[in-house]
## 1
Amino acid sequence: MIVVDGLTKVYGSLKAVYGLSFSVAGGEVIGLIGPNGAGKTTTLKCMVGIQAPTSGTVRIAGRDIATDAVEAKRRLAFMPDEPQLFEYLTVHEHLNLIARLYHVTDFHARVPRLLEELELSGKEGALPGELSRGMKQKLAIACGLLHDPAVLLFDEPLTGLDPLGIRRMKETIVARARAGAAVVVSSHLLHLVEEICTRILIINKGMKVADGTLGELAARADLAAAGSDLEQIFLRATGHARGD
Amino acid sequence: MTGTFLYLTTCSLKNRVLRRFRRLREPRYLAGLVAGLAYLYWFVLRHQIQMARRSGGGLSTLARFAPDIVAGGALILWFVALLVWLWPFASKTWGFSGAEVQFLFTAPVSRRQLVNYKLLRSQLGLLFGVLIASLFTGTARGAIAGRWPFVLGGWLLFTTMFLHVLGASLTKSSFRAPASKVPWLAWMSATVVMFVSGAVIGSYAVRFPALLVMPASEAARTILDVSQRGVAAIALWPFRAVIAPIFAGTPLAFAGALGPALAVLALNYWWVLQSDAQLEEAAVATEQQKARARHRMPTPVVRAAPFKLGPEGRLETAVLWKNTIQVGRYVTVATMIRVLIPIVVLAFVIGLKRTAGSFAPLVLMVALFLTVMGPYMVRNDLRTDLPRLPVLKTWPITGRELLIGELMAPAFVLSVGVWFLIAVAFALSPSWDAGPGDALGRALLAISAALLAPLLIAGQLIVQNAAVVLFPGWIATGGARARGIESMGQNMLMFAGTLLALVVGVLPATAVAGGLGFLLYNLIGWPGVLPEAILFAGVLIVEAGLVLVWLGRVLERTDPSQIEIAE
């Protein structure tokens, strides 16, 4: 569903991402982790077409994000860590706008279900300024889920959510993957990654340093000393473990 | 502490300049700079150099008109100051960035030091504004060498205005407190303003009936004379004092005018320092306003959407729907006043003498004003949306569709306004003795104007939006705009650049339609205007289409990290 091949993004003399390749199949939830400045957000931005890669390709459901951008974007949703909403549109109007952009013909039926799932029922007429940080996050996610995308990319999806919201969000992500979507979750919350991701991709200084299930990573010779603890694996893979 | 502020100011300036220089590595910014410099040289500097050669660089070109210019300028300045006092909303002059509020307001820094810092920060912008203004007004002074009094005097004037706007804003803030807690200085300041304005208004009120029936030149003479006699002369003295150095004909006269101007500046400085009760509150409130403006706009009010948006149809309509909602939700009393003040002033000035029994030309002037200035005032297009480009770029929409959708809302809002005014002018036109005498001719003229106005509006909107797409690092986007006295230079350059681009844009249409129009007008009279307008519109639409396709591709390639959200 997602194929990233030799993705490179260079800013001036800085190589933010270098030769990154991976793929995500439908039903998979891949956890993208790495230290600050490792290139996670740049990778996501290149994958959704916000930034053009310097070289390499990204294919979403078989469509190249650079050469067939509109069709590729029709099949994906990106939920950034900081929800970017239109201050002057109500919750319902946000969803109405998205319905038109993605041609969601049955949006009148979908909206109540989605709002219920994300605990936004009763807030249809509210402006973003009247919503809490967590609710704004949920609205951004509702906008992303409305068109039932085949590919979902989350950047720090739990930021600003309360404990109940966190639980619901994890359930939502897992449910979408079970329904066949390919999901990428970028987060510093290793327990989240450990809990919901079927595979883990660790990047450091713009390059892939580890890729596999938790079991596969733990079995790797150079990471074996870390055991099956993701934090230890992460520190060892990124060269920050004690003694490195 | 002065050293610290100087360090902060110079570091900010150095980094800003370096960042702008680094941008020049990109060919489009370099080309933009070269085009800008060529424009300045060709349309401004070249003429002034020629004038300087002819006049031999004399200083006293305007010397003999100086008293009248100073008197007229003082009157205008008083009117501007009065508007500042009457303006019911907080000024943004006393505005600090989020970082400044976080670091300076929590640091052991006195209010006096904060005022000094703000003054220091504003000086570069003020000086740049004065230099640009001196370039654009230089021909009137006749010589480049003779421009230094304008620059120095202008700098002094703008600094005084900056302080006065700040003081007025702080004084008005203090009146929000219960009457018993309003400081004595605020009461005194308001009293002085009332006396000064009362003296000026009173001096003219008694002569107003006579002024209305005088010929224009005699009325202008009387207005200037009144301002220099009696109580009006005393009331307007500070305003004359700060303007006088600009128009001093000789170095000696400049030195003589400098003393009173500096005294007025010092008085305003003292006044601001003493009005410090509301300093932090006003600054923080302004910072919050600016923070809102940086991202979006003031707080919106929920009103019904202009039309229902179905899930299927053209994507441009979705963007139009979104942006039209935006207009409705941000129209406030402040917006209406901002739009209405220039229109009312224009109507008053023109209506006073020139309507000659019909309001049709007056209404047409307002329509023309809306056509020319509207695209600068109504900004619910990419100029507002560009900071959200990361979101817009995830939408399944092409750059061209997005751009057309963005342009449609302001073009639609302004066109409806202009059409209404054209219809009113047409209805009033029978009593107007100019233009075609018969109803058919007037109707055809009105239809032609109604056809062309939206295209001219759209043309300017395309130029404005092209500027943000091509130079996202140079243009302030989002709710924030370059405001205040210190941003005058930037605004003048932008306005001149837009007009030039528009003139270049309409040249092909003029060339194609002009010949036909001339021929038809001579053959069949006024009815010939309509085919000319249709042809003109057709060429403009083709041009606009080509530009939009190209700009759409540029927008698709635009990296959101290049976009500068103004502080």
## 2
Amino acid sequence: MFKEMKKAFFIIIILAMAILFILSIDIEYGNPKNLDVANYYIEQGLYDTGAINLVASIYLGYRAYDTLIETIVLFVAVAGVVFCLRGKR
Amino acid sequence: MGSSKIIRTIAQKLFPFIMLFGFYLISHGHLSPGGGFQGGVVIGTAIILLALSYGIEKTEKKFENKRLSMLEKLGILTFIFLGFLGIYLGHSFLGNFLPLGKPGQIASGGLMLLFNIAIGIEVAAGVSIIFYALVRYRGEI
């Protein structure tokens, strides 16, 4: 029973991925028609965050949790290096 | 332990300028290219230069490992605290609750300067801690 459920779950995930892929086939990335988000950043970035540097306004303004995890990555890297090397004198 | 006198002298003269450039990159992160991460790596490089030219013992007297690891935790905790304060007082994570100020000045962008400083401290301490660990446990300079 459990095995069949697992198989059915797997097939459902594959189907969902296929449907998402088929739906996204006719979106042209880089097409000027589909640049709403980028244009919003360029036009409203200065008024929303008050920073001239557009990269900083995306990195420390719009992109919230991604920046937090990016900072934690280095923290975990330091912890890992110290942990792995500690015992080998 | 250490390098020749020429390298030591040049490293000593170069150190404050590299440090200054790092602080410039951090504090102007919202005005010009750069930011907390890049400036922090530059400051870490200055400490690595001192360690390479003067030896690890002399450098560790000035920049103690314990203090550096405390600074790293302080930086990341400041970042997380300010970020969640943004949820409480503003509207979202990293949300701004300070006045935006006039664009183009250092004191503009609200919380962005504080975030950059926190990330810069964390990255500078992290890079030098990695270097200390590699030197101390895997051989010497």
## 3
Amino acid sequence: MLTQREILSTLEMLKNEHLDVRTVTLGVNLLDCASHDLGKLKKRIHTRISHFAGNLVSACNHIGEKFGIPVVNKRIAVSPIAAVGAAMSSTQLVDVARVLDEVAAEVDVDFIGGFTALVQKGTARGDMALMEAIPHALAETDRVCASVNVASTKAGINMDAVLLMGKAIKQAAHLTAKNDGIACAKLCVFANIPQDIPFMAGAYLGIGEGEAVINVGVSGPGVVRNAVDRALEADPGLDLGQISDLIKKTAYKVTRVGELIGREVADHLNIRFGVVDLSLAPTPNVGDSVGEIFQSLGLLSIGVPGTTAALALINDAVKKGGAFASSRVGGLSGAFIPVSEDLNISEAVRKGHIGLEKLEAITAVCSVGLDMIALPGDTTAETIAAIIADEMSIGVINNKTTATRLIPVPGKKAGDSAYFGGLLGQSTILPVNNGHNPNPFVRRGGLIPAPIQSLTN
Amino acid sequence: MSKAILSIVGQDRPGIVAAVSKVLFEQNCNIENVSQTTLQFVFAGIFIVSMPGDLPVESLHKNLNAEMAPLGLEVHITMLEPAADPVLPSQGEAYIITTKGPDRKGLVAGISEVIARFEGNITNLQAVFKGGDNPGDNIMIYEVDVPPRIDQQALNRELKKRANELKLDIDIQHRNIFEAIHRI
């Protein structure tokens, strides 16, 4: 017999606190679709994805209705296209991106990730072709997401690739100048990329992940924030240890939802269940914000002194609660701080409470990186590469994942507004320290060697 | 050995179960199963009792009454016949239906009619009607076993339609979500 409290608190979470399954992401292996013949490659990709993903959306909707919990996004992640299409030229790879876009639209998913290259130690021919294809691929498709892993703790940082990505980002922005450089919102540059992230733009199906898999991303920053508010109302004297405990318990509940829905969808589709990514992922909706949690904890805004400590507390509590809730936890699993996607964080930028430097600092204690950051349109490619290099170093030295999703908005400057729309939100453009100056450091290229802590054998 | 169902209803107070079980013990009866609820200060308890073969049920009733009436409690007793067609535990799925809305006559009747029409069995019902228009004050929670052959989508549609007519907000969810979130 369920208690009234259990039932009503669950309904409260669903109806008023934005508890939902943020994404169910189907991973599809395309490696055996590889061919020297572009036509064959495209056809095999199309057939393979249609086969697995045909019922994805209806299964998610059915399960969502059964439990009264909406599955907000249905997505696909494929094997790294740089491997699948290793024999292709960059023009041909843009064509492959179009096929991915088409099949994604046919099965009605909102994003398809996996236009990916892994170049942490060196760049092969296929990798280069993919990186060169990225700007056009992202500008000419709607649903395709790309990611490039340029660094890892074991390998070091591929600075040649970093510089290439700086240039690719500028070019992608230029090609979508009419939409504030939106192509860049579909591109992430990673250090230590996880093989099983369900979220975009970093989702891809890692090598060794099997034929097909269902990964789930839950979300509930609103649930966490409301739990904190309620507890503090009942007892304003709670200390940070007690609050950490509360966040941990709330993260447990949120993750349980993802686990249940993920397993049910996987069962229904007869596909292996992979992982729950227990990240707190915000949306631009009111009450669905990670930034608000900082305020509930007692900070004026995200960005003021105390922010890094608060985020460390939140990130850790979320991991602990989530880890107990599911034996299959993976992906990023922490707190996200995507600037434009979180109403509260983009407000904090607008008001000047948080800048690029503080954002970089706090990535040392959370699970993403510099995410959805709008930069002045005239920031040079070298500067962008340097920002990426900084973020990669944090990941490499600390043996964690970091990433950048930077958007230099053509024609706009610091203080202007950039508008990306939908879940991608909007944001004020952040100023960059000496963003126009040349950067001979970054131009040197080469490989920044793997740190001593990589010697774990 | 014969079995009887005993129901005790009346104003709640300390000592009710003690009084009932004292009489049952003195009459050589054994309590096999018992369930009690308190609603708005009223106690209601059902006891399944096995009686010695030579004890007439009227005599047990008389003894219980003598003990309980002074406490302001009513006693009903019936013999428990083995059911001709027992309602077996369903092989189907367990759903939780929650409604919220302004109070009015016919809410429980309206929702339970739809459930019955689809052969659902209500295994637990909690309802709080504080009256008035505040939806938070008038909540019904039905735990329902739905037989596997039933079209769940059709049931959900009809429930939503009825809820609409009754001006209720309705949620229909499989039981597992509540267990997953709240139970380890």
